[in-house]
Automatic annotation (TrEMBL):
GO terms for cellular component: phycobilisome. It comes from the Bacteria. CDD domains: PBP-like. This is ApcA1. Keywords: Bile pigment, Chromophore. Belongs to the phycobiliprotein family. The keyword Hydrolase does not apply. Pfam families: Phycobilisome (PF00502). GO terms for biological process: photosynthesis.
Amino acid sequence: MFSQFSRLIVEADGRYATDAELAFVKSYLNSAKQRIDAYESIREAEELIMDKAEECLEAQDPQVFMKGTREVRDICRRDRKSTLRYSAAAMLFNDLDRLKDSLLLWQRTIVHAVKDEQVSQQTWAVMPEVLREYVDAESVDLMMPALHLTQALLN
């Protein structure tokens, strides 16, 4: 939304925005209540979501949080939380560009550098199902564009 507003400000400088240019604003305003509700639901269920994601990942691979002999559970949880929070904010403001530019491109570099592509892929593949356990279907649907972007860029 902010990225779109910024573009609109530049493109419509000195003139009124057209109906076509304002379409994203109307669309956003029509979904604002649902976005706020979804954001609040995710925020309130964050710890449960993190716990369930860990449980699912460990069920797939009991050594998922081991890097050699070092346990990295806390680091992974911190990164999952951060990514979920940024994704929820992207959903709230309908601004995937900001999610991509402010977190995911940087995080992709880290994931590749530490060779955690498989764990990342598993994490973001399971996240929609985990979310479905703690927030309503409409909220998950609103989150899917951010989750798909996360999956695409981190895998």
